[in-house]
């Protein structure tokens, strides 16, 4: 069985690739104490992600064994907008920008009530980019919105969230990791199912209620990390489609998204191609005490073209489907 420690070592080992090879241009230089704190946070979150994503562990270690240079392009987190308009994206912005991350352009997600923005790490680090999205809960059907609001309202009030303020002030990387990785709310199984099933048969709304039910279950924990094909340097994975095929041969189950190989979203003409596995299922105990296997986190693959550093909303929408409970 592939080792979590081995996969962790592959993702975190140095030396860091040149910034241009990683498609990073942020010249900020975090203070040493801030850098050490975020490094602790990131490494703790990475171990937690690997523990719940065996498909990623398998893929990372197999690519490394084949001689590939595995670099994590980005991670992604989800959040909500509460009934007072307080922004989960803004809440997470406060955290990441405290460590030298630079906020980039906002991303529009077609046909989804979701706001998104991406953050670029300081070029001198080997930290990943961060893609943060938030669901505009008020645009869900009323029954679903009421349940979500009952759990999240007040949490994103930064002036009152003592845990975030204290962890940032103390440069406490472990506390910040717990804040992100431990769900901030614990709904019952019935509540999560009501939110998911509130779509009324509308496919577009179903994508929104799936996003809502996942985020209500898992909170702000990492939902994926991403292997950057551009620096992999494997003859058998010379483009994203051949990398997809290689990992299908390794037994990974992919999110079917279309494209020439049935798996790839985007195109060279759009400067970005992406694919993703289906989320691994993990045991989760709901607020009612019921424990059930639920989709959690997955692995993404990405190929960038023409020095494109950012993200595409249409691709992101397809990637979100990797965590849908209904497959």
Could you list some keywords that capture this structure?
2,3-Dihydroxybiphenyl 1,2-Dioxygenase, domain 1; 327 residues; single chain; 11 helices; alpha+beta; eight-stranded mixed sheet
CATH architecture: Roll
Low-pLDDT residue intervals, each spanning 5 or more residues: none
Strand order of the largest sheet: 2-3-4-1-5-10-7-6
The averaged pLDDT comes out at 95
Total of helices: 11
Specify the structural class: alpha+beta
**Which fold name is given in CATH as the topology?**
2,3-Dihydroxybiphenyl 1,2-Dioxygenase, domain 1
Strand content: 15-25%
**In which range does the helix fraction lie?**
25-40%
Measured distance between first and last alpha carbons: 26 Å
- What is the CA-based Rg, rounded? 19 Å
Query: What form results from the Cα inertia axes?
Result: globular
Instruction: Find the count of extended strands (DSSP E, 2+ residues).
Output: 10
Spell the H/E element sequence.
Answer: HHHEHEEEHHHHHEHEEEEEH
Number of domains: 1
Under the CATH scheme, which class?
Answer: Alpha Beta
């Amino acid at each position: 069985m592939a080792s979590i420690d081995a996969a962790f070592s592959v993702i975190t080992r140095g030396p860091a690739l040149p910034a241009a090879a990683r498609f990073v241009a942020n010249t900020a230089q975090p203070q040493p104490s801030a850098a050490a704190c975020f490094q602790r946070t990131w490494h703790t979150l990475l171990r937690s992600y690997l523990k719940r994503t065996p498909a990623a562990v398998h893929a990372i270690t197999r690519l490394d064994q084949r001689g590939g240079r595995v670099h994590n392009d980005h991670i992604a987190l989800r959040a909500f907008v509460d009934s007072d308009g307080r922004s989960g994206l803004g809440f997470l912005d406060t955290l990441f920008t405290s460590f030298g991350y630079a906020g980039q352009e906002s991303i529009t997600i077609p046909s989804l009530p979701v706001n998104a923005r991406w953050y670029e790490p300081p070029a001198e680090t080997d930290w990943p980019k961060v893609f943060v999205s938030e669901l505009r809960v008020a645009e869900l059907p009323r029954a679903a919105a009421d349940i979500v609001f009952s759990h999240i309202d007040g949490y994103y009030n930064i002036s009152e969230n003592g845990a975030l303020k204290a962890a940032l002030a103390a440069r406490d990387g472990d506390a910040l990791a717990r804040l992100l990785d431990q769900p901030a709310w614990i709904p019952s199984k019935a509540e999560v199912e009501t939110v998911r099933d509130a779509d009324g048969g509308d496919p577009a709304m179903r994508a929104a209620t799936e996003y809502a039910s996942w985020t209500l279950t898992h909170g702000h924990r990492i939902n994926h990390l991403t292997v950057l094909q551009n620096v992999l340097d494997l003859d058998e994975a010379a483009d994203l489609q051949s990398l997809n095929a290689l990992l299908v041969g390794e037994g990974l189950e992919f999110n079917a998204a279309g494209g020439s190989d049935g798996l790839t979203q985007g195109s060279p003409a759009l400067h970005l191609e992406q694919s993703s596995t289906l989320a691994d299922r993990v045991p989760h105990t709901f607020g009612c005490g019921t424990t059930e296997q639920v989709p959690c986190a997955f692995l993404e693959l990405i190929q960038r073209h023409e020095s494109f550093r950012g993200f595409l909303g249409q691709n992101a929408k397809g990637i979100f489907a990797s965590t849908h409970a209904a497959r």
